[in-house]
Amino acid sequence: MAVCEPYLGGREAEYVLDCLKTNRISSAGTYLTEFERAFARYCGAAEGIGTTSGTTALHVALAARGLGPGDEIIMPAFTIAATVFAALYVGATPVLVDVEPDTWTLRVDQVAARIGPRTRAVMPVHMYGHPCDMDPLTELARRHGLWLVEDAAEVHGAEYKGKKCGGLADAACFSFYANKIISTGEGGMVVTNDRALAERCRSLKNLGFNRERRFLHDAVGFNYRMTNLQAAIGLAQLERLDEYVERRRAHARRYNELLRDVAGVTLPVERPWARNVYWMYGILVDETFGCTRDELRAALAERGVDTRTFFIPMHEQPVFHGRGLFAGESYPTASDIGRRGLYLPSSTGLTDDEIGYVVDALRDVQATARG
Q1: Against a cut of 0.70, is the pTM above it?
Q2: Domain range annotation of the chain
Q3: Average pLDDT, 10 consecutive residues per value, the chain (371 residues)
Q4: Class of the 12-98+106-238 domain?
Q5: Which CATH number fits domain 241-370: 3.40.50.720, 3.90.1150.10, 3.10.25.10, 2.40.50.140?
Q6: Which of 318, 341, 332, 267 is nearest to 77 (CA)?
């Protein structure tokens, strides 16, 4: 059983075939225009800029903002490496803070202490489907004149105090990789209400072409164009996003019901102000379970259940140590959850029987480990 698979249950084939029939298969076409418009509107934003991935969405957003050498960007220690990579791509310096032990999102109370004279931006990462606590972060950013950009790669449809993630900051960046709640296979998008930023993103993602004269370049740009084919899939997925979110939330309720009395397992939370979309159903395994996280994963694999570990925190990554970053820094919660966390099968198309099988397999592993 795969840990997460695409769920193609709508008009994807119809829309893709229309692209083929009309010869609109590259980076121009009505599906791209409509997908950008519709997804931005879904998030409560005015502008959407499709890209080739969530990573390139982050890169082009930071570049469009003009961030570069000498600038610092505050972000969580617990995230995927793409968050840090995007800062490095523009020559900026990533500055880390620890994360909350329950939501696994950036600890807002630690951000103020990391703000310095070179700080230009804060990049909260909504983690595994649960939003970051944005109000105090927004107030802090406004007080210090900092740009606020959501790494929203994992939270399609999630809400903070009734507002969709993606519409909570100056800009937000999404991923549409194959394991996301909605997917274009590969792809990403920047959403924003800043029209000037959006126009700059559109230019930079398209080799920096001048708007008035083709082959005249205003900047060193990138080839980060989403195709009309990808957008056709994305638009079909977007039409059913609310349904897919409800399925994920129903899966989480089922997992919670079946796992609540399993010793040594910490379940994911949903804060009162949040609507968690459970992109991945993550658990923490402690010593009272009966075996380690990695031993549990191996035993589940023998029973046909695929899992993934949590991310390895950024301050533990050799690639950054080699660049003189994060050496000697300690983020205890990020390290702890990175060591103990895994996610169980989380596909939109999971059935209750499949979830039951996963939990039965997990209980069997525990019983065997305890003898």
Answers
A1: yes
A2: 12-98+106-238, 241-370
A3: 94 97 91 98 98 98 98 98 98 98 97 97 98 98 98 98 98 97 97 98 94 88 97 98 98 98 98 98 97 98 98 98 96 98 98 98 97 82
A4: alpha beta
A5: 3.90.1150.10
A6: 332
